[in-house]
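Lab notebook page, bench 4
Experiment: in silico fold of construct C2
Operator: M.H.
Input chain length: 65 residues
Purpose: comparison with the prior construct
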Amino acid sequence: MCILTGRQDHIVGFNDAYELLNLFPRASYSVIDCAGHNLQIENMKVFTVFVRDWIKRIEMEEGKT
């Protein structure tokens, strides 16, 4: 699991998402500065890098690469 949060997210907040780490021990958690609730739109380049890395790790785990 890849958990991406915007530091300026006033709707959900990055602190609340941190609790998910207790449920998913292999999750990645990142707080991106200068991004809010629409991180994927506000900072598409950073979002894409994290998601591609996450997909690569899933494929490696499944033995596809």
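Observations: The chain has three helices and two strands. The chain has one domain: 2-61.
Next step: discuss at group meeting.
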